Amino acid sequence: MKSQSPTLKILTVLSVLLFLAALAMVFFFTPLEATMNYVQKVFYFHISNAWVGMLGFMVAAVAGIAYLVSHNRKWDSLEMAAIEISLVFFLIAIMLGSIWAKPVWNTWWTWDPRLTTAAIVELIYLACLLLRQGIDDPDRRARFCAVYTLVGSLSVPITFLSIRLFRTIHPVVIGNGSANGQGSFAMTSPMLATMFFCLFSFSVIFATLLWHRLRLENLMVAIEERQMEVL
Amino acid sequence: MLDPTISIKYMIAGYAVVVVVLPGYLVSLLLRWRALKHKLQDLEDVAGKK
């Protein structure tokens, strides 16, 4: 197994620095929102984690298509890596949303279209990882996951658009949303700059983690192949 | 307007989630990497003996 490439090392250090810079911007650069004050600062990481989660699920769908076309197992590795990382980020987004909702909506959870579709997305991809464990043949497993991920990816745009299509209390920060939205606020320039910086930082963090996770997946494949030779 | 003392508690809880879950995932990656490296080494030792 190859050792870490210098690019990956640089990307790892850059990711840590970007994460710390994003935290510093949230706490020291953005102003306090007039109505929600401190808890509104959860917004920057909430939206960034949700963005990266959705990005990863779409990467997995593209990798699934690539596997079905090429039957190259490196696409299956990419798919699994993207799904696992996205599940972590999306879980954080859901948890942050719930923590934000408690003081603003006066509840930890409500079966609102956005929250419900987000929970469904998380469960769909979690099920993919669990079901995958039950298939021994690597090619069948990869084919199953590619098709599953492709079908499952339909839930991602539905979740993204749910606050724009349905009556929901989840606010739309950019653009026009439902009139029932609770917890929306006017974005000032520093808030907007911080939001985009956080989105960028988390995209870099996602790419770094994906690379690390891919190396782990390749190691698993190497072990599987070695086991076939030995046994 | 939300009470700042309540609001700040939820903000801290939110960021605590981030700083616990993300490093937790990193640690899990590291532990899995180490375990797999050991496993690969063992398999190579077995293959070498054969």
Give the low-pLDDT segments of chain A. Answer: none
Count helical runs of chain A. Answer: 7
Low-pLDDT segments, ≥5 res of chain B: none
Shape of chain A: globular
Q: How would you spell out the order of helices and strands of chain A?
A: HHHHHHH
Would you tell me the overall average pLDDT of chain A?
A: 91
Give the overall pLDDT of chain B as a whole number: 91
The largest contact between protein chains, plus residue counts on each side, is: A-B, 37 and 28 residues
Instruction: Report, as a whole number of angstroms, the end-to-end distance of chain A.
Output: 21 Å
Question: Biggest sheet of chain B, open or closed, and with what strands and sense?
Answer: none
- Indicate the overall shape of chain B: rod-shaped
How many domain modules of chain A?
1
The total of beta strands of chain B comes to 0
CA-atom Rg of chain A in angstroms = 20 Å
Q: Could you characterize what this model shows?
A:
- The complex is a heterodimer of chains A (231) and B (50).
- Chain A has helices at residues 6-29, 42-70, 73-105, 113-132, 138-152, 155-165, 189-230.
- With 231 residues, chain A is an all-alpha fold.
- Chain A has one domain.
- Chain A is globular and about 65 Å long.
- The mean pLDDT of chain A is 91.
- Helices cover 92% and strands 0% of the residues of chain B.
- Chain B has one helix and no strands.
- The mean pLDDT of chain B is 91.
- Chains A and B meet through helix 2, helix 3 and helix 7 of A and helix 1 of B.
Task: Give the helix/strand layout.
The complex is a heterodimer of chains A (231) and B (50).
Chain A: H1 6-29, H2 42-70, H3 73-105, H4 113-132, H5 138-152, H6 155-165, H7 189-230
Chain B: H1 4-49
